[in-house]
Amino acid sequence: MKHFLTYLSGLVFGLGISLGGMANPAKVVNFFDVAGTWDPSLAFVMGGAVVTAFIGYRFVFGRWNSPAFEPAFNLPTSRVIDTKLVGGAAVFGIGWGIAGFCPGGALPAIGTLDPAVLVFFVALVAGIFTAKYLMKLSALRAERRAA
To answer: Does Transmembrane helix appear among the keywords (predicted)?
Structure first.
């Protein structure tokens, strides 16, 4: 049942992203082009997602102490705004603006086999592994300095 609900959640997410236009890189790039062919429609898609998530979180956390298939909710505990957070957000935003894809929008578009989507996805995976490697390297350097 857990796998079915995970699949169903992903399907609803992918359909929402696709129907909202966030899997269309031209629409995303036009959203960021405020001085040219600006298309504000994605602001409504994002706003609707934020409102839905806000209501959903209030509903879930108000009624349940844990998720259905896990012993506890897995939420971030840190509220620190550090260079990793700001740098990651900047790289994410720059990549989104240049490519016209965010990871959530690229996943449903992979099925199109569009070379631009496939290149973005390969770059996304390479970026994930590079970030993990750099974080591990940074932790090792910090350990050596502390020793």
So the answer is: yes
What does the block give as tokens for 12?
Answer: 């609803």
**pLDDT in the model for residue 133:** 94
Low-confidence ranges of the chain (pLDDT < 70): none
Q: Which domain does 139 fall in, by range?
A: 2-146
Number of domains making up the chain: 1
- Residue 96: per-residue pLDDT: 81
Q: How many CB atoms lie within 10 A of CB 27?
A: 17
Tokens encoding 125: 């995976």
pLDDT of residue 26: 83
Distance CA 101, CA 110 (A): 11
Q: Rounded to whole angstroms, what are the CA distances from 6 to 1, 41, 69, 85?
A: 9, 28, 11, 28
In the 8-state DSSP scheme, what is residue 111? G
- What Å distances lie between residue 102 and 6, 18, 23, 42, 60, CA to CA? 20, 12, 8, 13, 26
Question: Tokens 């629409």 — which residue?
Answer: 27
pLDDT score of 55: 95
